[in-house]
């Protein structure tokens, strides 16, 4: 039998935001037989675990709140954050689709909080937050898929592609051959696969055994294998988003509290500690992926009801954010265990941490002088500045060791078509979301960056694949 005779229209690999969006969009654009294969026993991938914040320009919610924005603004900011190293055509397609994709999610029934917030340090707020976070998005889209007769086959891993004469014509799903006119790869990242992290993101492995992935088990990087099988170009080597932690607990902790001071192995500060996490991640990369948090006795005597502001990134709907690592009971426990180093002077602390005492003394003195005046060399806001003066002094190594998202995968063009080594589309193969490469830069562009890519390229992939039928 020829592959085309019993082919379905579209096979989507993975049921996170990218896959659900692509499948529903394709169906709404005229595809009749659409199947989603999901390797795990649960729908939703990392999307269902996530906080549900998405970036988009020129959304209905922005307009409602009187915020003037445009795809061009977003494009210019995105290209600047990512230092103009990403393909402009791809980012243009993304930024143009970003707002309509959020409006489309609302039309499908996803409820967002009635506010628009900053995802990082952009000029114009363009972040929206789903009311029931990621699980809420998945619930709505899975129900929508069902209402459109899109099957989601759970526990059915796609094992390999079926390729004939250079065109993708289906895949091995579980034990079955499934022929399809198009296959859309939406199988997420590779954070749960240490072998692939070592191969595709060696910079992250500097965290050694502190490294952990906060996403779903299904993030095994299968799209990289499919890309190799189809001879696709793989893009985004050594990219992704890491969050720093001191190895006390494995908990999602996006930000370093603003009141803290962090120095590198030489004893000098290297970033405004309250910066967006994408910027902090990049700063770690430029400083041997290693920092030390330094604080004094005052930090152990804060009144929890009247403590210093810790974060400039506020998500009103989430309530007050408390640090999983840097709260008083945890810090006291870690001091007791010897996991936090204690000393009676800054010089002694430096010695114990293996940092130059003179340099650390100088750094702390400089910081304290700035704090007295409300001025910081790294531009940290005055409200975060607390002098480090009260013995005993404390220090703890911190590493960018929580993998939040990966950025390597098959390269797509502005129609979400997977391309070969010459940049030409591979017939029958599309991709969207964290499975793709070439969309994240060295600086992750703020909260909502990844989901924005999933929704936008999910929409684009669904429309493109349907248009080839
Ligand atoms: C705790 C947490 C909070 C986050 N918060 C945010 C946020 O607020 N905003 C933001 O932008 N990003 C956030 N992220 C990142 C974001 O959630 C992910 O990057 C995004 O959800 C990825 O979506 P996806 O559709 O590409 O992949 P996923 O949602 O991971 O879905 C991929 C699916 O494909 C399946 N799959 C894999 N291989 C196969 C195969 N061979 N066959 C069949 N199925 C397969 C997987 O099991 C999975 O279900 C967060 C991540 C985490 C973990």
TrEMBL record:
One example of a Gene Ontology biological process annotation: steroid metabolic process
Keywords: FAD, Flavoprotein, Oxidoreductase
InterPro entries: FAD-dep_OxRdtase_2_FAD-bd, FAD-oxidoreductase_2, FAD/NAD-bd_sf, Succ_DH/fumarate_Rdtase_cat_sf
Keyword Oxidoreductase: yes
Domain FAD-dependent oxidoreductase 2 FAD-binding: 9-451
One Gene Ontology term of the molecular function aspect: oxidoreductase activity
Cofactor: FAD
Name of one Pfam family that matches: FAD_binding_2
SUPFAM superfamilies, per database record: FAD/NAD(P)-binding domain (SSF51905), Succinate dehydrogenase/fumarate reductase flavoprotein, catalytic domain (SSF56425)
Listed PANTHER family: 3-OXOSTEROID 1-DEHYDROGENASE (PTHR43400:SF10), FUMARATE REDUCTASE (PTHR43400)
Identification of the protein by name: Unannotated protein
Species the sequence originates in: freshwater metagenome
